[in-house]
């Protein structure tokens, strides 16, 4: 079982330190990080906590899921692995992928192929 926990629907006032202290009640916390917007520096409303053992992680999930923090019911669950995503029209290890737009490409649209 994984020891990394996803924490969602966090109030924007929650910091890394407060997140770590809330989860420390259930065992050793290796790391706690609230995700921040790059441009504004404001919290995105979710974060990740890594616990020392799987047992500590399960205890924290069981106790904190659905708990009210500043009027918001937080979501606490095991973190899923990050999915690889290629930008539309980008080249990746699997090869070139055309855009998901049906109106782009060589087709029925005159010079350049698009329908405009």
UniProtKB/TrEMBL annotation:
Segments crossing the lipid bilayer: none
SUPFAM superfamilies xref list: RNA-binding domain, RBD (SSF54928)
Pfam families: RRM_1
InterPro entries referenced in this protein's UniProt entry, alphabetically: Nucleotide-bd_a/b_plait_sf, RBD_domain_sf, RRM2_NsCP33-like, RRM_dom, SLIRP/GR-RBP-like
Domain RRM: 3-81
Keywords noted in UniProt: RNA-binding
Keyword RNA-binding: yes
PROSITE patterns listed in its UniProt record: RRM
Protein name: RNA-binding protein
């Amino acid at each position: 079982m994984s020891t990394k926990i996803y924490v969602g629907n966090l109030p924007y006032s929650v910091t890394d330190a407060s997140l770590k202290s809330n989860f420390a009640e259930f065992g050793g916390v290796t790391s706690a990080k609230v995700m921040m917007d790059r441009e504004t520096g404001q919290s995105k409303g979710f974060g990740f906590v890594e616990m020392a053992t799987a047992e500590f992680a399960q205890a924290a999930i069981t106790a904190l899921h659905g708990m009210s923090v500043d009027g918001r019911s937080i979501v606490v669950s095991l973190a899923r692995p990050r999915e690889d995503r290629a930008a539309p029209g980008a080249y990746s290890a699997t090869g070139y992928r055309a855009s998901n737009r049906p109106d782009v490409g060589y087709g029925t649209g005159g010079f350049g192929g698009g329908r405009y």
